[in-house]
Specification:
CATH topology of the largest domain: Uridine Diphospho-n-acetylenolpyruvylglucosamine Reductase, domain 3
Largest sheet: 7 strands, antiparallel
Strand content: 15-25%
Number of domains: 4
Bound molecules: flavin-adenine dinucleotide
Strand order of the largest sheet: 15-12-14-13-17-18-16
Structural class: alpha+beta
Distance between the termini: 28 Å
Helix content: 25-40%
Number of helices: 17
CATH class of the largest domain: Alpha Beta
């Protein structure tokens, strides 16, 4: 295989042990396994060529964006396995401000796109914290802090082009705001974790930068009060742009890591986007009235862009701050989402179970979407306890009509819960996989148990 890939891709293929190792790991899965080769695609033609070779030679192909996924999406299961690194396909092909559309290659990162859009007064809202690629974000149906207002990847990718397992390049969808023309295969490719096709181009939806922004931090006595207040804000139909829960443990970690002095109490980090100062003031007033019912301990405002940037940096760095607080430990991260009214109940259960199992960790996340993460940090010998905790939380979320993954995806780690979530629908997913990828060359072993 080495000679064949070398002949086809020249210096765009690597067999260096460090490169093979770096492409067989991610940011959260506890195991890593080096891949057998890494091809750095520079064009859609490179992708087509690799997929055709995979068909002829029978190796598997694992698309790779920025490598920030956390559920084992990139770890090879079947041999030989070639990682297809798309980070060099990083051209912003077109910005069409008049249509609020940009056309990008899959290796463009969200930060790079937003830098380019600023001069047009536009932005791309999906914000998973990590500086992921647009291709990787589409493949995991990523979302983030602004999803409560602007939606996740399915809502913000209008059309895409992908190389299918046959090696054909196909466009799915049209760059329009709505369509009723046939089966929505664009949305099927989104969230398919590289198992149905390799995304080579995306038409993404842009939004005007908000004219007025106001951010708040509200600290509470208990996490139950914080969760209750979040539900009250959503229940009132307030158009919050961000509504994040950050617990006392996460704030303790952030204070140490970023040298901040936030009160170490459960908090809601909130942001409003409006077109006028009057509308912003009215929304803030209603929000504060609703929050008052939950006896907040302190309310702090972030008015300037610098203060707002600092507030959201604290939220985005919370995971790394926790890793820093508990050096050398292993982490188990949950990603459940439940119907909004069930959120306070599941958060209380998460806290109770963490205490019952004697685990140290933190609860934080996108509560405006009914989605939150718990991160437990354990020593090697306590890892089974962390797994038991994840199992309990997943079970309870499913009982509450929730999902095992609000945004991180399935990868390897969550495959074992798929049958419990989907039941007979899982068999239809298997049939789909067989239609799209009959030889099983695209990221085999992921999603489907
Ligand atoms: C600190 C931290 C915080 C995070 N917070 C969030 C969050 O709030 N929300 C969230 O959604 N995620 C979050 N994540 C997870 C991660 O950032 C997302 O899953 C992200 O979308 C992965 O993008 P990537 O470019 O790194 O893709 P990779 O990790 O490289 O790949 C992810 C998957 O997509 C496939 N893939 C990559 N590119 C393509 C392509 N062009 N075509 C087809 N398949 C492809 C891969 O095969 C793999 O299955 C977080 C991760 C970290 C480390």
């Amino acid at each position: 295989m080495q000679g064949l890939l070398k002949g086809a891709f020249g210096d765009r293929v690597s067999f260096s042990p460090a490169v093979l190792e770096a492409h067989g790991r991610d940011e959260g899965y506890p195991e890593a396994r080096p891949v057998d080769a890494v091809v750095f695609a520079e064009s859609a033609e490179d992708v087509e060529k690799l997929i055709r070779l995979a068909n002829e030679e029978g190796f598997s192909v694992i698309p790779f964006g920025a490598g920030t996924s956390i559920e084992g999406h990139l770890i090879p299961v079947e041999r030989p396995a070639v990682s297809l690194d798309l980070s060099r396909m990083n051209r912003i092909l077109e910005v069409r401000p008049e249509d609020f559309v940009a056309v990008v290659e899959p290796g463009v990162t969200r930060e790079e796109l937003n830098r380019r859009l600023r001069s047009h007064g536009l932005f791309f809202p999906v914000d998973p914290g990590a500086n992921a690629t647009l291709g990787g974000m589409a493949a995991t149906n990523a979302s983030g802090t602004t999803t409560v207002r602007y939606g996740g990847m399915r809502a913000n990718v209008l059309a895409l082009e992908a190389v299918m397992a046959t090696g054909e390049r196909v466009r799915f969808g049209r760059p329009v705001r709505k369509t009723s023309a046939g089966y929505d295969l664009k949305d099927l490719l989104i969230g398919s974790e590289g198992t149905l096709g390799v995304i080579t181009k995306l038409y993404v939806k842009l939004h005007p930068l908000p004219a007025r922004v106001h951010a708040l931090r509200v600290f509470f006595e208990s996490i139950e009060d914080a969760a209750g207040a979040a539900y009250a804000l959503m229940g009132a139909g307030l158009p919050v742009a961000r509504l994040e829960l950050v617990d006392d443990q996460a704030l303790r970690a952030v204070n140490r890591y970023l040298e901040k002095d936030y009160p170490e109490r459960p908090a809601l980090f909130i942001e409003f986007h409006s077109s006028t100062e009057a509308a912003l003031a009215a929304e803030r007033e209603v929000a504060l009235e609703l929050i008052e019912e939950f006896s907040p301990l302190e309310v702090a405002a972030a008015r300037t862009p610098e203060e707002q940037k600092a507030q959201w940096e604290a939220r985005h760095q919370a995971y790394w701050a926790l890793v820093h607080l508990f050096p050398g430990r292993k982490y188990a991260i949950t990603d459940t989402a439940v119907p909004l009214s069930k959120l306070p109940e599941l958060i209380a259960y998460a806290r109770e179970q963490m205490e019952a199992l004697g685990l140290e960790g933190s609860i934080l996340g996108h509560v405006g979407d009914g989605n939150f993460h718990t991160i437990v940090a354990v020593g090697e010998e306590d890892y089974p306890k962390a797994e038991a905790y994840v199992e309990r939380l997943v079970e309870r979320a499913l009982e509450l009509e929730g999902t095992i993954s609000g945004e991180h995806g399935v990868g390897l780690r969550k495959r074992r819960y798929m049958v419990r979530e989907h039941g007979p629908a899982l068999e239809w997913m298997r049939r789909l996989k067989a239609v799209f990828d009959p030889k099983g060359i695209l990221n085999p072993g992921k999603i489907l148990p």
